[in-house]
């Protein structure tokens, strides 16, 4: 007589729940996305603020363009659009200098230091710098009038008075 115990195949394990795996994957993706947004946002803020400057940074850029690079177009990028002040002395100096990179340019080098903001209001500033002609060692204090908001929020040189011994 056959036994009533028949051999029944064991039931296969129920499929494992993938809910935990999906939650982990979504968390990793969301974290990566948020990280990318933070990094991208930080980069964009840096790009938007790149037009902003301090008065002393603008004077330093202007002096570099004028006295080192001897590039009137680059120097002009540091000046105000309306040119309410006088840049005649600085431009005449640039015209009298040998071109950057020429053998003569090495003889007529300039250095500057003590770039100091003397005063600032909402949209104007006064900065001085001690500019030295390297070949003679003579130093003169240059005074710079700057404005912001002409044409943007960057501080721009609107006037230069060269001279004045230090």
Describe the structure.
This protein has 166 residues and is of the alpha+beta class. Helices cover 39% and strands 22% of the residues. It has helices at residues 19-49, 55-68, 72-76, 88-96, 103-107; strands at residues 110-120, 124-133, 138-147, 156-161. Strands 1-2-3-4 form a four-stranded antiparallel sheet. The radius of gyration is 33 Å and the shape is elongated. The protein starts with 18 loop residues before the first helix and ends in a 5-residue tail after the last strand.
Notable characteristics:
166 residues, alpha+beta, 4-stranded antiparallel beta sheet, 5 helices, 4 strands, elongated
In short:
Helix content is 39%, strand content 22%.
